[in-house]
Design brief:
The protein has 805 residues and is of the alpha+beta class. It contains 26 helices and 26 strands. The chain binds ligand C2E and magnesium ion (2 copies).
């Protein structure tokens, strides 16, 4: 009994569902069995009672006439026999015969403890008239019926119990076998299920028949496996997403740009390493703060609030804000950063946060500012350069237009600056320019602008002029400040300036034209005699126009073969015999006529055209010198003038050598005349180039000696062969005692340095005597011959006695 209860208990805990099922089956099947059995028993009982009732009726109908007869006949024996016959019938236990009028006959016993049923009927004699004889009461005992019923109940209960029990067990077994054991498998599977074994599918221990495939268990198994697969997929996707997120977060963390991520309210949620590096703010200390309010400095907050308001507005409207911001680091240091601010949107397109990328552009900014300075300011003097000057001029004009006022534009050009630069060297020239800039600036008030346009040209802008005469006053002031000597290379040098003035709007309302007009006026001032100023007048435009025209004509002159070489003989002073010839260029222009070098060489030097022109001269000169030997049978050297500008051409030496090679002229037949100014120009590797030329056997001469500032002793360090005394000294040797002594001294000193001397500009015979007397080696001048076109020079060579074979 105990074993059974523990088993049941175990069954109950092990398979509660089966247990419950069993309990319900037992309950209901018992209930149904009981009801069915009760109905059955009741029906049987009713039938038994009916049988007894029928038996009573049979007694009435069957025995009534015979009993009546026996009574009528008063046959007691028969009566008794008849009653015993009735009493022997089944279940009849007692008979009572009441005989009229008052006797009674009783037979059998009424059972004391069992239930009975009685039936009475009258005994009547049917003669001519009816005669009531008595009444018989038959009593039946129901004991048998009840005992049979008890037996039946016991039997039914026992058989039904066993049937119910067996059926339940069978159902439970079936249920266990087909359902609950699989449910347990599922439960175990689910219990043990984890991401590590998520690849094993759920399998039930049953054959894979078509019947099984479609049932509920198969559906649940499929659903679980499906769920498992989806879970696997989800996990794989999550892993991929996580890897992706890790990658992105690493990228953001290690990004070379600083990265801030803010929430919807612009509170910082994340800052990367670069941000900390750049700003000095630790990421943890700024979380939750606004990117424009990192420092504790309230001043800075006010500064940035406006900026961040406009950033927020633009990001909302346009979707991005980009710009350069002057931010401050934690230590207060300012730096420039390039910011890009964009919203971070969710899949519905709503901004859920903001991304702020920053890059330190301080270095770039510094370069930009430097470039801007370089682009706008002159490095040497620190003054605004041409570009900035033009900008300022335009601004001044715009303002003057609004205010209806006058603007003065002054164009300054230092007089003879080129000369200073060439003779004293570029360093001295630079110092001179710095000092000149300082002096000009000192004459002006706050709103005026002084700019260096380039070279020795300055521009002064005078806005808000009271009247025309105001410009003259300023010009006078400037000219006065230029009067004191400049100290350059320990020498006192006097430099003046020429000023051209144009007025807005009187002369022009356009900045470019105003400049041109001021330039033209400046040329006029130079023309007037240096150290003066001139106001613009309409007729002046022609002069500057002419300059422009000449430049464009000169550019085409080489192509059109408009240049021509003239040659002037240089002779021995003592004998008058031909020594060599100097090549002098002429420009034969159809519209301008014969243009002398003094008029176009400076312009050619300015524009750089002197390089191709100089090359042409060299080739031509060498070519003709070779030709002269053919004519005269003797070597006649040629002198070629070279501009300092040509020395700056890196191909200059190569060009000279190629001219010699090309013509076949011997190097010692070529003499290059270099002005004294060149030697003092430190910026060119003059000494080096001269050495190269000398090493190649080419002769070198100092031209126009005496006009520059060089000391004779200075020439010692250069490989010169010849010195040409400038014609300004030679011309006056007979009139000016000073010049005569100077020429004598130059000749002596040149000789002591081993140089031969040529006197230029000899026009009179007396001069030849003087030069002869003082040992000047060679002479050149109109006295011997003017410079002649090549053809005429050839005739001169053929016919002149000074040419010796
Ligand atoms: P320079 O080299 O001193 O040349 C001498 C100048 O004096 C020549 O003037 C010549 O015509 C002039 N002259 C010669 N004898 C007399 C005289 O007795 N009295 C006067 N008053 N003048 C005389 P030009 O031909 O007008 O040349 C002027 C300057 O142009 C030259 O001065 C030279 O520096 C330059 N030049 C000429 N041709 C060239 C050239 O091909 N290249 C370069 N770079 N410069 C050249
Ligand atoms: Mg010369
Ligand atoms: Mg000369």
């Amino acid at each position: 009994m105990l074993k059974l209860s523990t088993r049941l208990q175990r069954f109950r805990t092990g398979s509660p569902l089966s247990f419950r099922l069993l309990a319900w089956i037992l309950l209901f099947s018992s209930l149904f069995t009981l009801i069915a059995s009760a109905i059955q028993l009741y029906t049987d009982y009713r039938q038994d009672l009916l049988q007894i009732d029928n038996r009573m009726l049979v007694v009435e109908t069957g025995y009534s006439p015979s009993l009546s007869r026996s009574l009528w006949a008063l046959d007691q024996t028969l009566l008794q026999t008849q009653m015993e016959g009735i009493l022997s019938l089944p279940d009849i236990a007692h008979l009572r015969l009441r005989i009229e009028p008052d006797s009674e006959l009783v037979m059998g016993d009424i059972p004391r403890h069992s239930t009975t049923t009685s039936h009475s009927f009258e005994l009547i004699h049917q003669g001519d008239e009816k005669f009531r004889l008595g009444e018989l009461t038959v009593t039946a005992d129901l004991e048998r019926v009840y005992s049979e019923m008890k037996q039946k109940v016991g039997f039914i209960l026992v058989t039904q119990f066993f049937k119910t029990f067996l059926v339940s067990i069978l159902i439970i077994w079936i249920f266990q076998h087909f359902v609950t054991r699989h449910l347990s498998t599922m439960a175990n599977y689910a219990r043990k299920f984890s991401l590590t074994n998520a690849t094993n599918p759920l399998r039930l221990d049953r054959p894979d028949t078509p019947l099984n495939q479609g049932d509920e268990l198969a559906q649940v198994t499929d659903a679980i496996n499906h769920m498992r697969e989806r879970l696997n997929e989800d996990v794989a996707r999550q892993e991929r997403d996580a890897a992706e997120i890790r990658k992105f977060s690493k990228a953001i963390e290690q990004s070379p740009s600083s990265v801030l991520i803010c929430d919807r309210q612009w509170c910082i949620e994340f800052a990367n390493q670069k941000f900390t590096q750049l700003t000095g703010y630790d990421a943890n200390t700024i979380l939750g703060k606004h990117p424009g309010a990192l420092s504790d400095n309230a001043m800075e907050h006010r500064e940035t609030r406006h900026l961040w308001q406009s950033i927020r507005l633009q990001v909302q409207r346009v979707g991005v804000w980009q710009g350069e911001v002057n931010s401050s680091r934690r230590n207060g240091e300012r730096f420039w950063e390039q910011l890009i601010v964009t919203p971070i949107k969710n899949s519905d397109g709503e901004a859920t946060g903001y991304l702020i990328l920053g890059e330190d552009i301080s270095i770039r900014k510094r370069y930009e500012q430097q470039l801007l300075r370089q682009a706008n300011y002159d490095i040497l003097t620190g003054l605004p350069n041409r570009m900035l000057a033009l900008d300022r001029l335009k601004l001044a004009l715009a303002q003057a237009r609004r205010e209806n006022s006058l603007v003065g534009v002054m164009f300054l050009d230092l007089d003879n600056f080129k000369h200073i630069n060439d003779t004293l060297g570029h360093d001295a020239g630079d110092n001179m320019l710095i000092e000149a800039a300082r002096r000009i600036s000192s004459c002006l008030r706050g709103t005026s602008t002084v700019a260096r346009l380039g070279g020795d040209e300055f521009l002064v802008i005078l806005p808000g002029l009271a009247g025309l005469e105001a410009t003259s006053q300023v010009a006078d002031r400037i000219l006065t400040t230029f009067q004191p000597a400049y100290r350059l290379n320990d020498q006192e040098v006097f430099v003046t300036t020429s000023i051209g003035i144009a007025i807005f709007p009187t002369d022009s309302d356009n900045s470019g034209t105003l400049l041109q007009h001021a330039d033209a006026a400046m040329y006029q001032a130079k023309h007037k005699g240096k150290s003066s100023f001139a106001h613009f007048a309409p007729e002046m435009t022609e002069v500057s126009h002419e300059r422009l025209q000449m430049e464009s004509k000169m550019r085409r002159a080489l192509e059109l073969n408009e240049f021509e070489l003239y040659f002037q003989p240089i002779v021995r002073t003592d004998s008058g015999a031909l020594y060599c010839a100097e090549a002098l260029i002429r420009w034969n222009n159809p519209s301008m006529g014969m243009v002398m070098p003094d008029r176009f060489i400076p312009l050619a030097e300015e524009t750089g055209l002197i390089i191709p022109i100089g090359e042409w001269v060299l080739y031509e000169a060498c070519k003709w010198a070779v030709q002269w030997r053919v004519i005269t049978g003797t070597d006649i050297g040629v002198s070629v003038n070279v501009s300092p500008r040509q020395f700056r051409d890196p191909h200059f030496t190569a060009c000279v050598m190629s001219a010699l090679e090309n013509s076949g002229l011997a190097p010692e037949q070529l003499e290059l005349e270099i002005t004294e100014r060149l030697i003092l120009d430190n910026t060119i590797e003059t000494a080096e180039i001269l050495k190269q030329l000398d090493a190649n056997g080419i002769r070198l001469a100092v031209d126009d000696f005496g006009t520059g500032y060089s000391a004779l002793s200075y020439l010692k360090s250069y490989p010169f062969d010849t010195l040409k005394i400038d014609k300004s000294f030679v011309q006056d040797v007979m009139k000016e005692q000073e010049d005569a002594s100077l020429v004598k001294a130059i000749i002596n000193m040149a000789h002591s340095l081993g140089l031969s001397v040529i006197a230029e500009g000899v026009e009179e015979e007396a001069q030849t005597h003087f030069l002869q007397q003082h040992g000047c080696d060679y002479s050149q001048g109109y006295f011997y011959s003017r410079p002649l076109p090549e053809a005429e020079f050839e005739t001169w060579l053929r016919t002149n006695h000074r040419v010796q074979a």
